[in-house]
Write a structure and sequence with these properties.
Spore Coat Polysaccharide Biosynthesis Protein SpsA, Chain A; 27% strand; 38 strands; single chain; elongated; alpha/beta
Length: 443
């Protein structure tokens, strides 16, 4: 298998390679590589160009990489890749690093077409116009591909487009690739010319039409990236609905590709769940929450408007309420932080609870420190736990307290001064105000 990923991506107007831009939590190139892994080829060769070192590092171990130093077209990219396949004699599939939406099922159909017909070239086509239009002969087989710049008015009416995805006999490909001619306006070697070479030799070219044209979408601009991302988010939501997850509004949720969600979980609108996150069964994520690379146990409730930053591990039946932020923390079963709290770099045992406005003060402007909260501990409202600090099992912290040392089991930490009253203060305040207004009126 060959994946072409050497394009400059100039229309993205970016400082990094196009294939490293993320779509639903995964770099673009990660999608064709995942398809390749699902098809289990003997070898995967990726042709890289711009930012080759960065691309290679990002996908190290998943493919063999070859560098196309001078970009002279898709045919030239395949020429660069073929030596990496050695004396391989089987079929060769050509995919593209910036076409992330092609499904495994479509490629399985293409493989079956090539196997059943024995055609040296089987290609995927789209049921909608693309820059390359497919001309078929009376027998229904592909005769040639015509670019829109060279097409007649009648040919421009053709709706079937060329995706550029080919499943080819390796021996034929090696022979045909050496016959490509750069005599064109761009002076490049076009892989599409293998179709004309096959037909000139009297060999058949077969085509499989995609069920959905969106699979052929190539990402060359930010707008196309947004369109591809929206389609992947839709697919992800549909997948999890098929697995028993409820989405109250699938179009208003954004679930990355590499996420796991247990059955009977409910996802409300405005929710973002990023790659690496794992949700158990029966979880309820209320509106406008963000969950980043975190793990949630069964029957937990999150939100509304809560934020789980990376590295969170929540047990079963945990409750994280509105405007609560949790970061890099382990929360045991039944822990509760219902509103307006920050729990960062903390280890919280089962059954503990945080009152409104409670904060773990984890940063001393140089280093991060951890807070330990024991089982069943009760943290009152507007409490500061200055890490590193430990609240032992069944301990209590009174409202408004700043804790800087260990609170023993069954003790209560009270840091606020004793309340006192200044009698008549309010009356004196009113009299002073009235006197001020009287002097102002006399001026």
């Amino acid at each position: 298998m060959i994946v072409l990923a050497a394009g400059q991506g100039t229309r993205m107007k970016s400082r990094r390679a196009k294939v490293l831009h993320e779509m639903a939590g995964r770099p673009l190139l990660g999608y064709p590589l995942a398809v390749a892994e699902a098809l289990a080829p003997e070898e995967v060769v990726v042709v890289v160009g711009r930012d080759a070192d960065q691309v290679t590092r990002a996908f190290e171990g998943r493919a063999r990489f070859v560098h196309q130093e001078e970009q002279r077209g898709t045919g030239h990219a395949v020429q660069v890749a073929l030596p990496a396949l050695g004396d391989f004699e089987g079929d060769v599939l050509v995919l593209y690093g910036d076409s992330p939406l092609v499904r495994v099922e479509s490629l399985e159909k293409l493989r079956a077409c090539r196997a059943e017909t024995g055609s040296p070239v089987a290609m995927l086509t789209a049921p909608e116009p693309l820059p390359g239009r497919i001309l078929r002969g009376p027998d229904g087989r592909v005769e040639r591909i015509v670019e829109v710049t060279d097409a007649t008015p009648e040919e421009l009416e053709i709706q079937e487009g060329n995706t550029g995805v080919y499943w080819m006999d390796g021996a034929f490909l090696r022979d045909a690739i050496g016959k490509l001619d750069p005599s064109n306006a761009q002076g490049e070697l076009y892989l599409t010319d293998v179709v004309a070479i096959a037909r000139a030799q009297g060999l058949p070219v077969e085509a499989v039409v995609l069920d959905e044209g969106i699979e052929a979408l190539g990402v060359n601009t930010r707008g196309e990236l947004a369109r591809a991302s929206a389609e992947q988010f839709r697919r992800n939501a549909q997948h999890w609905m098929d697995e028993g997850v409820t989405f109250t509004d699938p179009d208003a949720t954004w679930i990355d590709t590499d996420v796991e969600i247990g059955r009977d979980t409910r996802i409300d609108p405005g929710v973002v769940i990023t790659a690496g996150s794992r949700l158990g069964e029966g979880v309820w994520v209320k509106p406008h929450c963000m969950i980043e690379d975190s793990r949630l146990g069964d029957d937990s409730v999150i939100g509304p408007s809560a934020h789980l930053r990376p590295g969170c591990e929540l047990g079963n039946e945990v409750r994280i309420g509105n405007f609560v932020e949790v970061k890099n923390s382990v929360l045991g079963d039944g822990v509760k932080a219902d509103h307006l709290s920050y729990v960062g770099d903390a280890d919280v045992a089962p059954g503990a609870s945080f009152g409104c406005g409670s904060i773990t003060v984890n940063y001393d402007w140089v280093d991060k420190h951890r807070t330990t909260v024991g089982a069943g501990a009760r943290i009152g409202c507007n409490v500061n736990l200055v890490a590193p600090v430990t609240i032992e099992d069944e301990a209590y912290v009174a409202a408004g307290t700043t804790v800087t040392k260990t609170v023993p089991k069954d003790a209560i930490a009270v840091g606020a001064p004793r309340q006192r009253h200044i009698e008549g203060w309010g009356l004196r305040k009113k009299r002073a105000k009235a006197a001020k207004q009287e002097r102002k009126g006399q001026e």
